[in-house]
């Protein structure tokens, strides 16, 4: 069988179905299952920032902090104004005990979007 989108038997529809299924797995607290599905989607579409962001969230939920950090960083290289990615990278650094780096990303998130969670994490008053 010829390869489609870099993976044998994959179609654009398969990738959309896997992406949506990964969202549901993450919501159902199965981040490792979500990562497995997203690995194939990203192999077929490495430029897909939404899939990378979802995989970063799944890594974070699975306490795989280094892979989460790397994925959030890729997302921010492509979308430096993504407030959620800054916030999530800040949370990742926070869980790794890297408070200075966390605060920088919390503040960037809050500057980009005045979401109350981002503002609280940024701790501008301290």
How would you sum up this structure, described in words?
With 126 residues, the protein is mainly α. It folds into 2 domains: 1-64, no CATH class; 80-126, no CATH class. Helices cover 72% and strands 3% of the residues. It contains 7 helices and 2 strands, in the order ββααααααα. The chain has helices at 12-27, 31-44, 49-61, 65-78, 83-95, 99-112, 116-122; strands spanning 3-4, 7-8. It has a two-stranded antiparallel ribbon with strand order 1-2. A hairpin with a 2-residue loop joins strand 1 (3-4) and strand 2 (7-8). Helix 2 (31-44) packs antiparallel against helix 3 (49-61), helix 3 (49-61) packs antiparallel against helix 4 (65-78) and helix 5 (83-95) runs antiparallel to helix 6. The longest helix is centred in the N-terminal third of the chain and has 16 residues, at 12-27. The termini are far apart. Mean pLDDT is 93; it is low at 1-6. Keywords: Repeat, TPR repeat. InterPro entries: TPR-like_helical_dom_sf, TPR_2, TPR_rpt. Pfam families: TPR_19 (PF14559), TPR_2 (PF07719). TPR repeats lie at residues 83-116. It comes from Streptomyces seoulensis.
**Helix proportion:** over 70%
Largest sheet: 2 strands, antiparallel
Total domain modules: 2
Radius of gyration: 16 Å
Q: Distance between the terminal alpha carbons, to the nearest Å?
A: 60 Å
Number of distinct helices = 7
Number of strands: 2
The neighbouring-strand order within the major sheet is 1-2
InterPro entries: TPR-like_helical_dom_sf, TPR_2, TPR_rpt
Pfam families: TPR_19, TPR_2
Keywords: Repeat, TPR repeat
Protein name: Tetratricopeptide repeat protein
């Amino acid at each position: 069988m010829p390869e489609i989108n870099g993976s044998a038997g994959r179609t654009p529809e398969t990738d959309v179905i896997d992406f949506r299924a990964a969202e549901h797995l993450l919501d159902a607290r199965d981040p490792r299952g979500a990562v497995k599905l997203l690995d194939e989607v990203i192999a077929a579409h490495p430029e897909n920032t939404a899939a990378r962001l979802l995989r970063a969230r799944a890594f974070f939920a699975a306490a795989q902090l280094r892979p989460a950090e790397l994925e959030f960083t890729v997302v921010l290289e492509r979308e430096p104004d993504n407030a959620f990615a800054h916030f999530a990278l800040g949370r990742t650094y926070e869980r790794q005990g890297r408070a200075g780096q966390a605060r920088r990303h919390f503040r960037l998130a809050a500057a980009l979007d005045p979401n109350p969670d981002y503002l609280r994490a940024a701790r501008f008053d301290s």
